[in-house]
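Below is one record:
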Amino acid sequence: MTDLKLLLIEDNEKLGPALAAGLEATGTVTIVGMCTSGEAALAHCLHETPSVMLMDVQLEGALNGIEAAVAIRYEFPRLPVVFYSIQDDDAYYRAFRNSGILSHYAYVRKSNYLLPEMIVPLLRDAAAGRSFIDPEIESRVQEVRQKDEQSPMALLEPNEQIVARMLVQGLSNEQIAGRLGFRDKRTISRTNGQIYAAWGLNDSATDEKVARTRAALIVREGRLLMWDEQGLPYALDERGEWVPYEWNNHP
């Protein structure tokens, strides 16, 4: 069988060389390069393209492993990659969900695939165009997806999200307009109106100051809230039901 020409991207200075030696010892892998950052991996691929990559998700540099793979596959479509990670971080699962990666990949936990003999089949499958995701990781990716879909920010357009985050900082319309380069502060007033409407805060009985405060609270809490006629708050729970919200119990 033709050797897999592997680019190993791992920032652990002890694990990287040990893993490279173990993979080459299987007789099916040739290490063509080792990098500690996504930026270095992209530069290597532009100089010498491997047949498959083994990519840690947490790396040195500005790019995590998934972002690095997206940048590399922009230049080399569907270049096979196996992600492996010990990190359990929503940001990585969110990056993977948003990456659009569909095939020629695997994504597994390091703890479940400790030995080179366990990694090689993943590399072969990715090189053959197949895909595999560790069930534990798939569960967490879906968990993050559900969390994001319930996020109040998911109901806003990008410019509205920016304004909403500035509201929570206590900035006035004039200050927000200045920071965003708008000459007319009424642009921010109109944007605020769209935010209030999206979050159900535009009741005619609620004045702008109250709506603004409640919008800032929603941003701060990271989930939708509503207030009844007596001003009592309710939160949207995981089942999509409104339940009384206890401020003092929230961390």
